Amino acid sequence: MGACHGEPGPLVGENASVPLYRDEAVVLRTHKLGEADRIITLLTRNRGLVRTVAKGVRRTRSRFGARLEPFMVIDIQCYEGRNLDTVTQVETLAVYGDAICRDYTAYTAATVMVETAERLCEEHEPATQQHLLLVGALRSLTGGEHDPSLVLDAFLLRSIAIAGWAPSFYDCAKCGAPGPHRAFNIAAGGTVCTVCRPPGSAAPAPETMRLLASLLSGDWVIADGSEARDRREGSGLVSAFLQWHLERGVRSLRHVDRDGTRPPAPPRRTLPLKAAGAHEDGVDLAAVVPPLGSHPALDRHLGATQPDVREPV
Ligand SMILES: [Zn+2]
Predict the structure, then answer these.
(1) Which of these, 23, 16, 10, lies nearest to 50 by C-alpha position?
(2) How far is the CA of 272 from the centre of ligand 1 (A)?
(3) CA 192 from centroid of its chain's CA atoms
(4) How far does the centroid of ligand 1 lie from the alpha carbon of residue 73, in Å?
(5) CATH number for the segment(s) 105-256+296-312
(6) How far apart, in whole angstroms, are the C-alpha atoms of residue 251 and residue 120?
(7) Which residues sit opposite 94 in a β-bridge?
């Protein structure tokens, strides 16, 4: 059986009653479960966020080896469970974890990326674009082609854009008047003209606006040539933008079907994380899985990069 690049096929398990599926995935994070198992949170290509259990993975002779570590890109086969799916097969597609973990800046950037992906995607809601964006960003971090902080900001901007909130860095975000404009307003969606400008808008440096536009569009010649102070100011704006949308529930916007090619979503299931006595194979999930909102590196990142805009308008 080759790697699955489309919709997961209607595979059926050996006992012909358990639904099996195959998908490409990035490992977002892992948690110990019992003596030898782990819960693995994945961003899959076709099923969005998926929580799986890998049985025996912490034993030295586990057949999964190190393939279920954070930042690994894998081809995975699972069977569906009531709360958690169970991993039956894993093949490595790309190993980014080793290189990323050797570089602290790349590691922190990658950690913020996987936590953001977990916040922006929903369980069993297809998120192909977010999956491809994350794989590309991890690959870029590994290659060391660009400053990791630029790769992170490019990832965050595009991730927000995919979620439905592409910021504007040139034309007015409210009326569309051709730019460039001096004022920038997070709530308005980016740069705003003098007519639309809400009170309290910021006035970032024009170079910062150019940098952010280049990160969003993928113009790395401009981004790589940017000055440190513009990168700092840009990171602050990106963080503020992300935080503003996360607090207002990015999830509600992701149902916009922009290209009409989204595969149908499998039935929604919810993980009873906080329910007392929630069990999967006799294990109390609430005791081992942190709440969905726990994203320490992302929260630290957002807290540490408040916008430091040089002059208010
Ligand atoms: Zn306007």
Answers:
(1) 23
(2) 45
(3) 28
(4) 43
(5) 1.20.1440.120
(6) 6
(7) 73
Q: pLDDT of 250-273, one tens digit each?
A: 444 444 333 433 333 333 333 333
Domain with CATH 2.40.50.140 in the chain: 11-97+274-288
Does pTM top 0.70 for this prediction? yes
Average pLDDT over residues 91-96: 93
CATH number of 11-97+274-288: 2.40.50.140
Q: Give the residue range(s) of CATH 1.20.1440.120 domains in the chain.
A: 105-256+296-312
How many angstroms separate the alpha carbon of residue 143 from the centre of ligand 1?
40
Ligand 1 centroid, distance to 193 Cα (angstroms): 4
pLDDT band, very low/low/confident/very high, at 296 (cuts 50, 70, 90) = confident
Binned at pLDDT 50, 70 and 90, residue 66 comes out as confident
Q: 207 with 182: CB under 8 angstroms?
A: no
